[in-house]
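--- STAGE predict ---
source: upstream dedup step, 1 unique chain passed
mode: sequence only
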Amino acid sequence: IYDFRSSGERRRADDAVLSLTGEGKALGAAHRWTAGAEYFARAVDMSSWIYDAVGSDNIFNPDPAVVPPSTSGAPVARRVLDHRQDSLFARDAATLGRWTLRAGARLTLARESAFDAGTGAKTARRRAARVLPEGALSYSWPAASAYASYAEGLELGGIAPAGSGNAQAVMPARVARQAEAGVKARVGAGLLLTAA
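--- STAGE serialize ---
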């Protein structure tokens, strides 16, 4: 029988976006554009958990054992991650006939501090400025379209699980890349088929 306690864990994410969208024509193509700014913050509080053996019993025992809790002190929750991002972004979709070209970029400044859950000591401080591009090209028929796209984004790091050599350590954020190509077709009144 084990006494497991991990109190005071908390995860919070705040996001604020201000954007402006417009439409117009230029160079013979119809444009729909968006530009803006975003602020994102993520904080994670964790405790150094208690996981102590306090006795033994058999699950088939008709009179289950009553055991006292661990004598270890209550776990104390501490901040393990403070992550903030400031971003400026712009994207445009230009349509000319059956072709649509989408292009954009996001400039992101990320600041991150990681802390030890047991002591509260700072274990890492990271700063990074990244330009994250995105683009897509599509061709449309009356009931179908073909497309290809590529995008980059900033993926927040996870927290190492219990039992690992670096348990509760915060992994750094990293750039995620996605490329996709496919075909979409509308069949009948309410069916959309996609192959990607």
